[in-house]
Amino acid sequence: MAGIDLTREQVAELREAFNEFDDDGSGTITTQELGYAMRAMGMNP
């Protein structure tokens, strides 16, 4: 898989969005947290 070049600002934005769904602050998201994130994006997992 090819890497994606992101600016520091883009990385910060992605990290901030990820942290919105990492409820316990573990640095990972559970399947339940992933479901919340997907529903927030209009998906129906």
UniProtKB/TrEMBL annotation:
InterPro entries: CALM/Myosin/TropC-like, EF-hand-dom_pair, EF_Hand_1_Ca_BS, EF_hand_dom
Entry keyword annotation includes Repeat: yes
Domain named EF-hand: residues: 9-44
GO MF annotation: an example: calcium ion binding
Assigned keywords, A-Z: Calcium, Repeat
TM annotation in the entry: none
Entry GO terms, CC: myosin II complex
Record Pfam families: EF-hand_6
SUPFAM superfamilies in alphabetical order: EF-hand (SSF47473)
Highest taxon above the source species: Eukaryota
Record flagged with keyword Cytoplasm: no
Biological role: Troponin is the central regulatory protein of striated muscle contraction. Tn consists of three components: Tn-I which is the inhibitor of actomyosin ATPase, Tn-T which contains the binding site for tropomyosin and Tn-C. The binding of calcium to Tn-C abolishes the inhibitory action of Tn on actin filaments.
Protein name per Swiss-Prot or TrEMBL: EF-hand domain-containing protein
Native species: Lepeophtheirus salmonis (Salmon louse)
